[in-house]
Amino acid sequence: MQGCDGSVLLNSTNQDAEKDAIPNLSLRGFQVIDAAKAELEKQCPGVVSCADILALVTRDAVDMIGGPVWSVPMGRRDGVISLKKDALTNLPSPFASFEQLKSSFIKKGLNVKDLVVLSGAHTIGTSHCGSFASRISKPTDPSLAESYATKLRIKCKPGDNKSLVEMDPGSFRTFDNHYYINLRRKRGLFASDAALVTDAEANSFINSALASSTSNSTSWFFTEFGRSMEKMGNIDILTGNAGQVRHHCALVN
Ligand code: HEM
């Protein structure tokens, strides 16, 4: 959480690691990273960092589900510190207001365009009920469509924090611009999604994303998503002699 240094892959030791912070408990697929790392260590030991592997795997995973491809400059090195508390203080909350989201992004060198474009990643994946439960308990949060809240209440009974819902119902395994269609229909799942439509600047970017055809890889949304991912992947990276190249991504050398 100090930057893009692969620290999210480290296991807890005498102190709890980022991985074990509540917002990270749904992270999975660590075995994919470990397999890539093991192969690379066989071919060229100590050369490709876990931070670079994570950036490359993310790019390829988005490509495989129909999303854009972007370039991943390499040469990041791995961090040796991973603290649960850093994840808790740095990751924006799904209950955040627009101003809170904007300020957490600005702290990392990201702007409102990055915020809107990267939030478009909520076109894939699932969420636990707890991340939006307060919005569907009656009276329904006015920024959420009543018809959508009714559907969500069927899956998410009060107190249920185990069940998962698709974040972009119907195409949660496809990378497209539906997220923005959902936002316009008051079907953003989190308060932090709905918060984007409350700001004029953010709305202008939402409109550009809506005008984007996602069958075309040169569309505004796809191009900008790639750009913002590259920018995010360069936040506070370790280079030169800083950090290390881990031999195993879950363990400091
Ligand atoms: C703007 C601030 C953001 C907030 C508040 C936020 C919040 C969340 C929350 C609460 C979940 C559901 C976790 C769960 O209950 O299992 C989630 C899922 C997800 N988020 Fe975000 N997120 C943000 C930005 C991003 C960004 C920048 C990306 C990537 C570019 C992203 C990609 C995803 C993906 C792919 C999932 C689905 C994960 C899965 O299927 O388990 N999010 N997000």
Give an account of the 3D structure.
This protein is mainly α and 253 residues long. It has one domain (7-232): Peroxidase, domain 2 (Orthogonal Bundle). It is 41% helix and 2% strand. It has helices at 30-43, 50-64, 84-90, 98-107, 112-119, 133-136, 146-155, 178-184, 191-194, 200-210, 220-232; strands at 126-128, 164-166. The chain has a two-stranded antiparallel sheet with strand order 1-2. Helix 1 crosses helix 2 (50-64), helix 5 (112-119) crosses helix 10 and helix 5 packs across helix 11. The chain is globular and about 55 Å long. The relative contact order is 0.20. The model has no long low-confidence stretch (mean pLDDT 96). The chain binds protoporphyrin IX containing FE. Protoporphyrin IX containing FE is lined by residues 26, 92-94, 96, 101, 115, 118-119, 121-122, 124-128, 131, 190, 192.
